[in-house]
TrEMBL record, chain A:
<feature type="domain" description="AB hydrolase-1">
    <location>
        <begin position="24"/>
        <end position="249"/>
    </location>
</feature>
<dbReference type="InterPro" id="IPR000073">
    <property type="entry name" value="AB_hydrolase_1"/>
</dbReference>
<dbReference type="GO" id="GO:0016020">
    <property type="term" value="C:membrane"/>
</dbReference>
<dbReference type="InterPro" id="IPR029058">
    <property type="entry name" value="AB_hydrolase_fold"/>
</dbReference>
<dbReference type="Pfam" id="PF00561">
    <property type="entry name" value="Abhydrolase_1"/>
</dbReference>
<protein>
    <submittedName>
        <fullName>Pimeloyl-ACP methyl ester carboxylesterase</fullName>
    </submittedName>
</protein>
<dbReference type="InterPro" id="IPR050266">
    <property type="entry name" value="AB_hydrolase_sf"/>
</dbReference>
UniProtKB/TrEMBL annotation, chain B:
<dbReference type="InterPro" id="IPR015421">
    <property type="entry name" value="PyrdxlP-dep_Trfase_major"/>
</dbReference>
<dbReference type="GO" id="GO:0030170">
    <property type="term" value="F:pyridoxal phosphate binding"/>
</dbReference>
<dbReference type="InterPro" id="IPR054542">
    <property type="entry name" value="Cys_met_metab_PP"/>
</dbReference>
<dbReference type="InterPro" id="IPR015422">
    <property type="entry name" value="PyrdxlP-dep_Trfase_small"/>
</dbReference>
<comment type="similarity">
    <text>Belongs to the trans-sulfuration enzymes family.</text>
</comment>
<dbReference type="Pfam" id="PF01053">
    <property type="entry name" value="Cys_Met_Meta_PP"/>
</dbReference>
<dbReference type="InterPro" id="IPR006235">
    <property type="entry name" value="OAc-hSer/O-AcSer_sulfhydrylase"/>
</dbReference>
<dbReference type="GO" id="GO:0019346">
    <property type="term" value="P:transsulfuration"/>
</dbReference>
<dbReference type="GO" id="GO:0071269">
    <property type="term" value="P:L-homocysteine biosynthetic process"/>
</dbReference>
Length: 265, 436
């Protein structure tokens, strides 16, 4: 569905069922250079298990108009504008990587709008190597190769995908190649600059699930656990053998974790 | 920072798509000879049917053994996903049925496998899908043949049996300028020699029966989605960009992004047309794929040795051969394009004309001892055929000429025997055939 947020058209996938603001809602936020399709399974599952779903394309990503926003803080405020546009007062919020930082910051800044959190592939800080930042800023294809190569664990590289016939590394590469020029650079810059992770975690007052890949090389599990320790009452699910692309490398485990916390009949 | 590490081709040939079986620890890919799969509960069943969870329901749609082969072939070709089919012909049919309806039109190379030509020229028109054939070297002809209702450009990396090298980058530009995808049949080269998706093709298909398997014991096909084509921007593919009533109103491009085509091909194409690959065939083809790099090196080595014999001895010295065609020969019209697209070898098919025409060809084939006379290519064993009387027998004289098939043409598929034995066999058969 299309929404108008801050005067710009925004696309959000609703998981195959019309968005109903009267039902409990969940917003799914993708990572740097990606779009709503990373959540295709979880979107459909949750939409058919009691949730209204907004798997959003952030500004400048996927089908959404505008330019990418340059900071996690601006993206957090944008999420609240999205909720206003959708007519929902309070939502569950799930995010992956950059999207997880956005979800975390949103919960810290606008706690009254967030019912619960699910953070996938997350750490208190996400410093990006200067070479990668520079390559992404120049739209050098090597930036995508670095993100895709480091982002997938053995399940992505060797395969054995849960979805029959899909190959995760080429799939991740193609997804990022579809992003508009400059988007990945802005996103990685936002991740690199964000320094409020610890403070935001301490300010979170809602239940928070941390879904961490055991062999994540971009946001190592120990960093995710350290961040989780700063959120009161948080829960950690550690997925053995899984890299940074948690929801595509371990789609069933991700859905199971979501189901336990978000599904409703 | 350190470069990203990706598994190399030889490693993917052995490992892609498989982790040791979690139930038994089996290192080899198990043959899941099961039609169907037990659901955890009713909710799990509903979730599988509604594409909320990945997994297997019924082996016509997906099967764990077949899925390993699909993922392995997708990884080797650099595609986002693959669907294996009962044969190469089924792969071509599946791709076409996924892309277009009655009224659709294809522009295809005229130098393609006779079975593919039959499908496009004679069978699909009964269902309202027509094809214009164009010489693979005539790029302007491809552009001129595109109509408003065209939905696909199609060719083979190496023409059959003329061995023309398809200008994939050039054709890709023509296709994309018109908002159309380019599909390439890469059976003759396998991803070891050419990855069409990396040079502009959007879809690639193989007959797995040939070099991918290599043993000649299993029929199978595959279509692989590069994930590169923008179906929405094109606006010509409602099967991928509009809600599909047959699957709860799903819009495949919206739902799956770069994997839209391959998801629809499975969800609709395998479900409804049903031309699936059996798990046993997938297992057998996997045994071949594991040794693909080794075998392709051997095929290319032997092919070059046989080419040397045909060129130097059979043609130049004793004149038993009238002409020899292979893209690696300097006088081949596509030699330069071959160097660009097929730097590691141009396949193991050799065409030559025997002095004495049809009758000499018949005697030659009957005198061969090691080469097997049969209608296949890409076996580990060397094969021979006379296309005008077999694979292309349905074509009339005009179509034969358009396909580059002469009555004197002999097609060799060079196998993995000791190349000295192959050359000895060719030498004695040529001598016997042309002496008479």
């Amino acid at each position: 569905m299309d929404l108008t947020v801050n005067g710009q058209t925004v696309y959000a996938h609703t998981g195959g069922r019309p968005f109903d603001p009267a039902r409990p809602a969940i917003v799914l936020i993708h990572g740097a250079g990606m779009d709503h399709t990373v959540w295709s399974l979880q979107s459909r599952y949750l939409a058919h298990h009691g949730r209204s779903v907004l798997a959003v394309d952030l500004p400048g990503h996927g089908r959404s108009a505008g330019a990418p926003l340059p900071s996690i803080e601006e993206l957090a405020d944008w999420v609240v504008a999205l909720l206003d546009a959708a007519g929902v007062a309070k939502v569950a919020l799930a995010g992956h990587s950059m999207g997880a930082l956005v979800a975390l910051e949103t919960a810290a800044r606008h706690g009254d709008r967030i019912e619960s959190l699910a953070l996938l592939g997350v750490a208190e800080t996400m410093p990006v190597h200067p070479d990668l930042l520079a390559a992404a800023a120049l739209n050098d294809p090597s930036a995508i190769e670095l993100v895709v190569g480091w982002g997938h664990g053995p399940c992505g590289h060797v395969g054995g995908a849960a979805a029959p016939g899909l190959s995760l590394v080429p799939g991740g590469r193609r997804l990022m190649q579809r992003a508009r020029p400059g988007v990945l650079g802005v996103d990685l810059g936002a991740c690199n600059a964000y320094g409020r992770g610890g403070a935001a975690a301490a300010a979170v007052s809602c239940p928070a699930l941390f879904l961490l890949g055991g062999v994540d090389r971009m946001t190592p599990a120990k960093s995710g656990k350290a961040l989780a320790a700063k959120v009161s009452g948080s829960e950690v699910v550690l997925l053995s053998g899984i890299g940074h692309m948690v929801m595509t490398e371990a789609p069933n485990a991700t859905t199971d974790a979501f189901s336990a916390r978000f599904a409703a009949r | 920072m350190a470069d990203a590490k990706f598994l190399k081709f030889d490693t993917l040939s052995l490992h892609a798509g498989q982790r040791p079986d979690p139930a038994t620890g089996a290192r080899a890919v198990p043959i899941y000879q099961s039609t169907s799969y037990v659901f955890d509960d009713t909710d799990h069943a509903a979730s599988l049917f509604n594409l909320e969870r990945p997994g297997h329901i019924y082996s016509r749609i997906s099967n764990p053994t077949v899925a390993v082969l699909e993922e392995r072939l997708a990884a080797l070709d650099g595609g986002v996903g693959a669907v294996c089919t009962a044969s190469g012909q089924a792969a071509l049919t599946l791709a076409i049925m996924t892309l277009m309806d009655a009224g659709g039109h294809i522009v295809a190379s005229s130098s393609i496998y006779g079975g593919s030509r039959n499908l496009l020229a004679y069978t699909l028109p009964r269902f309202g899908i027509t094809t214009t054939f164009v010489s693979p070297r005539d790029l302007d002809g491809f552009r001129a043949a595109i109509r408003p209702e065209t939905r696909l450009l199609f060719g083979e990396v190496l023409g059959n049996p003329g061995l023309e090298v398809l200008d994939i980058p050039g054709l890709s530009v023509i296709a994309h300028d018109s908002g159309l995808p380019l599909m390439v049949d890469a059976t003759f080269v396998t991803p070891y020699l050419c990855k069409p998706l990396s040079v502009g093709a959007d879809l690639v298909m193989h007959s797995c029966t040939k070099w991918l398997a290599g043993h000649g014991v299993a029929i199978g096909g595959v279509v692989i989605d590069g994930g590169t084509f923008d179906w929405e921007a094109s606006g010509k593919f409602p099967t991928l960009t509009e809600p599909y009533a047959g699957y709860h109103g799903i819009d495949f491009a919206e739902e799956y992004g770069p994997a839209a085509f391959i998801m629809r091909a499975r969800a609709e194409g395998l479900r409804d047309f049903g031309a699936c690959m059996s798990p046993m065939n997938a297992f057998q083809i996997l045994q071949g794929v594991e040794t693909l790099p080794l075998r392709m090196k051997g095929h290319i080595h032997n092919t070059r040795k046989v080419l040397g014999f045909l060129e130097s001895e059979a043609y130049a010295e004793n004149g038993s051969v009238a002409w020899v065609t292979h893209p690696e020969l300097p006088d081949h019209p596509d030699h330069r394009l071959r160097a660009q697209l097929l730097p590691h070898g141009a396949g193991s098919i050799i065409s030559f004309g025997i002095k004495g025409g049809r009758e000499a060809g018949r005697r030659f084939i009957e005198k061969l001892a090691l080469f097997s006379h049969l209608a296949n290519v890409g076996d580990a064993k060397s094969l021979v055929i006379h296309p005008a009387s077999t694979t292309h027998a349905q074509l009339d004289a005009e179509a034969l000429a358009a396909a580059g098939v002469g009555e004197d043409m002999i097609r060799l598929s060079i196998g993995l025997e000791d190349c000295d034995d192959l050359i000895d066999d060719l030498r004695q058969a040529l001598r016997a055939a042309t002496k008479a």
